[in-house]
């Protein structure tokens, strides 16, 4: 396990979560950017968990695939399987590569934030239980 790499992924995930939440506080939030940051947050937290457990960093944006890899290590990650994780994967592609014009509404954006927060909570809890020392929330 490369603890420094895990810490780096966790910090980058935190940065994405914070950036998205700050954007939501603006008068007219740009929801596609918020959703993109939430996708990035989830992806980075899942990769941090995998790296912590000695897995090679997967080169994918596919959130359901990452959830499945995490669930092989810890079945509790199965709770993250939902329609929302498929939406998050879509955000990584359409917003990064501009493949289609799309703007998520407030409700969809809030679901993305909630999924990112659930993923964050689960990963941090499991890392701490396994002996990783993380900065306080």
**CATH architecture assignment name:** Up-down Bundle
Low-confidence stretches: none
Q: Give the end-to-end Cα distance, rounded to a whole number of Å.
A: 23 Å
Q: Into how many domains do the coordinates divide?
A: 1
Number of strands: 0
Oligomer category? single chain
Amount of helix: 55-70%
Within CATH, the superfamily carries the name Nucleotidyltransferases  domain 2
Main beta sheet strand tally, sense and closure: none
Q: What's the helix-strand series?
A: HHHHH
Can you tell me the CATH topology?
A: Four Helix Bundle (Hemerythrin (Met), subunit A)
Strand content: under 5%
Q: Determine the mean pLDDT.
A: 93
Helical element count? 5
Query: Briefly, what CATH class?
Result: Mainly Alpha
Would you tell me the structural class of the helices and strands?
A: mainly alpha
Q: Radius of gyration over alpha carbons? A: 14 Å
Globally, the shape reads: globular
Explain how this protein is built:
- The protein has 137 residues and is mainly alpha-helical.
- It has one domain: Nucleotidyltransferases  domain 2 (Four Helix Bundle (Hemerythrin (Met), subunit A)), CATH 1.20.120.330.
- The chain is built from 5 helices and no strands.
- Helix 1 (3-24) runs antiparallel to helix 5.
């Amino acid at each position: 396990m490369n603890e420094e790499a895990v810490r780096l992924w966790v910090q980058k995930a935190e940065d994405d979560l914070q950036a998205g939440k700050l954007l939501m506080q603006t008068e007219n939030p740009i929801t596609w950017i918020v959703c993109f940051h939430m996708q990035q947050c989830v992806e980075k937290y899942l990769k941090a968990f995998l790296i912590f457990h000695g897995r090679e960093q997967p080169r994918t944006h596919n959130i359901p695939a990452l959830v499945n890899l995490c669930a092989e290590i810890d079945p509790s990650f199965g709770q993250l399987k939902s329609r929302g994780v498929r939406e998050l994967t879509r955000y990584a592609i359409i917003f990064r590569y501009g493949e289609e014009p799309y703007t998520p509404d407030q409700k969809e954006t809030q679901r993305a934030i909630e999924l990112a927060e659930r993923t964050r909570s689960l990963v941090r809890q499991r890392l701490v239980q396994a002996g990783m020392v993380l900065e306080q929330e």
